[in-house]
Amino acid sequence: MIMADTGFFLALGNQQDQNHSAVIQIFNALQERLITTYPVIAETCYLLARDGGINVQCNFLDEVAEENFTVFLL
């Protein structure tokens, strides 16, 4: 598993992020599942809504709901 933090998710979800292209390439090349935590999810939701709008935030939450990555319980 690969640990993903807020910065990774922000770059993945926000096309205006300077690291978006690089993160997309990394994400598409991953052969392992991502793992994160609920505090990262909460922070990511706030920042995605602030910077990208509610639709970007909802897209991220859809990924969470579809269990496209593992959430580690602290």
General description of the model:
The chain is of the alpha/beta class and 74 residues long. It has a single domain, classed as Rossmann fold (3-Layer(aba) Sandwich), CATH 3.40.50.1010. It is 61% helix and 12% strand. It is globular. The two termini are 16 Å apart. The model has no long low-confidence stretch (mean pLDDT 94).
How do the helices and strands line up, and which of them pair or pack?
Elements: E1 2-3, H1 6-13, H2 20-29, E2 34-37, H3 38-52, H4 54-65, E3 70-72
Parallel strand pairs: 1-2, 2-3
Helix pairs in contact: 1-2, 1-3, 3-4
What is the annotated CATH architecture?
Answer: 3-Layer(aba) Sandwich
Q: Can you list the strand order of the major beta sheet?
A: 1-2-3
CATH class: Alpha Beta
CATH superfamily (homologous) name = 5'-nuclease
Quick description:
Helix content is 61%, strand content 12%. It is α/β, with parallel strands linked by helices and 74 residues long.
